[in-house]
Amino acid sequence: MLERALVGPKKYWTGLIGLLVLIGIGAGCYFLQYQKGLTITGMGRDVSWGFYIAQFTFLVGVAASAVMLVLPYYLHHYKAFGKITILGEFLAVAAVSMCLMFILADLGRPMRMLNVLLYPTPGSVLFWDMTVLNGYLFLNIIIGWVILAAERKGVAPPAFVKPLIYISIPWAVSIHTVTAFLYCGLPGRGYWLTAILAARFLSSAFAAGPSLLIILCLLVRKWSKFDPGKEPIQALGTIVTYAIIMNVFFFFLEVFTVFYSRIPEHMLHFKYLFVGLHGHGIYVPWMWAAIILCFVAIALLLTRKARANEKILLAGAICVFLGTWIDKGMGMIAGGFTPSPLEHVTEYVPSAPELFITLGVWATGFLVLTILYKVAISVKEELAS
Amino acid sequence: MKLYDSGKIITGIVIFVILMTFPFWFNMGRAAPKPDPKLPKNVKNCVLPKDTIKTSHMQILNNWRDEVVRDNKRSFVAFDGKHFDKSLSNTCMKCHSSKKQFCDQCHNYLKVTPYCWDCHIEPKEPKESKETAEAKEPKETK
Amino acid sequence: MSLNRRDFLKIAGITALGVGAASAFEVLSGKQLEAALKAAPLTAGKRWAMVVDTRKLREEDYHDVITACHTSHNVPDFSGTKDEIKWIWAEPFENAFPDSPNEYVKPEVKDKPFLVFCNQCGDAPCVRVCPTKATFKGEDGITMMDMHRCIGCRYCMAACPYGARSFNFRDPRTYFADKEVPNREFPTRTRGVVEKCNFCTERLAKGLYPACVEACKSNALIFGDLDDPNSEVRRILRANFSIRRKPQLGTDPSIFYIV
Lengths: 385, 142, 259
Known about the structure:
Chain A is mainly α. Helix content of chain A is about 75%, strand content about 0%.
C-alpha cells in the first residue's frame, strides 16, 4: 500500500519538499544542540523543562483523541465515523511520533536513551510514559494499517485486530493520564500538584485533537476526491463543543480552589501566568488570548445551528486548537516552573534554535501524517471509483 | 546471453564494491604505529596478572565504577593480597602516569575512544619520558 | 563489554593460576577473590546528616564553605547565567523557607543568608522519579548520582522541591579550558547530566569530613550519623530547637537548621 505515497500530484510533492526543508533546518539546529548541549535553548537551572516537553504534552493529547473516533465507531457502532476512523488513527501515529522525538530532543544524553530499558524502574512515571507511548504507537500503526488493507481488498479485517481495538480505547486514556501523572505527583510544584490535572489534560485533548481532525477533514475534502462526509464532521464538532466546555469548567474548578484557599504555593503560578509576578509577565497576553479563544470557540460552536455552517465550525475548531495549544504548549510547563521552589522568578523564552528544532519536529510529524493520509486517501479514492 | 540493463547493473556493482572496500582504501598508507605502551619501571605488579589486565581491564573498570558509585565498595584486594582503592585516576594512573604513553598507545591503534576522560582527569603528561620511570610505588590503602 | 563478575573471576582465576606457576605470587582462588571484592567501605554511617547552626555562621564562612565545596568537586563557575551550577549556596530566609513567611522575623534571621544544598531527603522525590536509577539512595542515606547512567531527562530537577539540582547545559570542561581543574582526584562532569551535592561521599570513604564542614572555621556545620543516638548531630538536635526546609512535603530532610 505504501507505494501510493510515491505517486501524487505536484501539490503533494511541493508540500513534502516544503516539510523536508523545515525538517532540514530543524536537523541542522539539532546537530548544533548535540554539539553544544542544551545551553543553546532558553532552558536553564530554574526552568529546566521548556518548549520541547510542552509540545510533547500537547501532542500526547492529540494522539489520545483518536479514541474519540474509535470509541463511538467500534463500541457504539456509530457508522458515520467508519469513513474517518483511519484519519484519527493515523493522526495518533504522527502525534505519538512527534512526542517521542520531542522527548529525544530534550534529553541531555540521547545516546544513553536505552538506559530506560536497561535499568527499568517501575517506580518512575517516565518509565510508564515511555511504555504506554510506544505501545500506543504500535497499536495505532497495526490497527490502522490492517483495517485499511482489509478495506482495500474488500474483505473483513482479521480477527486479531478486534481485541487490539478494544485495548486501544483505555490505552488512549492512559497515555494522557500517565503524562499528567508526570507532573501532578511532584511535591514542590504547586501549579501541577492537583488531582484535576489529568482530567484537564484529557478534556483539552478531546477538544484539541478532534478540532485538528475537523480542520484536516475539510482540507482532505478540498484537496482530494475523498469526501469524509458532512455527518462525521458535524459529530466531531459536537465532541469538540462538549470537550472545550468541560475543559473550561475544569479550569474554573482549579481556579476556584486555588484562589479561594489562597495558598501561595498554588496561587503564585496563576498570578505569574495571568497578571505577572515581581514585574515579570511575558505569558500574560498569551494566557488571556487562550482564555478569549476558548470562550470565542464556545460562543461559535454552542448551537447546533451555528455548527452546521462549516465555516463557523472551522473557525471554532481553529480557536479551540490555538487556545488549548497556548494553555498546554506554552503555559503549562513554563508556568509550573515559575516561580521556582525557592520563589525566584526566572522567565523562560525559547531560543531561536530551540524554536527551529520544535518546528522541525512538527514538520516531521506532518510529513508522517501526509504520507499516511496519502495512502489512506488513495485507497479510499480507488474504492469510490 | 544478453544482460539487460547492463549499464545500471554494472554501475550498481561498481558502487557496491567501492563502498564495501571504502575502509581499506580510505586508510591506505596510514597504518597507525605499532602500539608500544610504556610500563612503569619500578613497579612490578598490577592489581591483577598482566594478561588479565590486558584483556579485561575495561570490564574491571566497569565493575569498579559500579561498585564504587552504587555500592560504596571502594577497596580492591589485588591478586598478591594488597589493598587498592578502586579508582582510575587515583590508582591506575598513579603508576601508569602518562595517558599518552600507556592508554593511548593501544586505544589509538585500535581506534577506540573510551569516554573515561570526558570526566575523569588524566595525569599531567611528563615533559620527558624519563619521568615515567620515576613513577612511585602505588599507594596502598589500609 | 558485558562480562559479568562471575565470568571475570573465572578468567582472573585461570590467568592467575597460569601466571602463578611462573612467578612467586600468591594465587587466590575465585572464592577468595570474590570475598576480597566484597571488602567493606572504609567508614560507615547509617544516615549521614548535617546541622547548620546559623547562630554561629559568620560572614566569611559563606565564601569559605562554598569555595571549598565547589573546588573540591570541580564545579564550574557559570554564575549569573541560566546554565549556573551550584552544589551549595546562600539564600535569604524568605527563599530558603518560602513556606514560613514572617515579615516580623528577627533581623538577625531576616538579614542572614541561609546555606542551602541537597537535603539528602529520607524519602527523596528525585530518587522516586528517576527513570534509570541514576539517582538512588545509598546505604548510608546519601542521595547519590550515577553520572555514568544519567540520561539527562531532568525529571529529578522538576521533582526536587529545594532547587538543589543543576544540569550541565554546557560542557563543564569549557570552563576549565584555560585554567587548572582544582581537584585532579575528582572527576568533572560531562555535558548533559544532572549533578548536586553528594555529601562528600568520596571524602567520607577516606574518613574525612565533608569539605564544607572542614572549611567552616566557626564550626557552624556539624556532620554525623542521625541513626546513632550518641552522635554529635543527635546531641545538638536534643539540646536545640531545629527546623527543616518544607518538612510538610514529607521528604524527611537530613539537613537541620538552628536559628
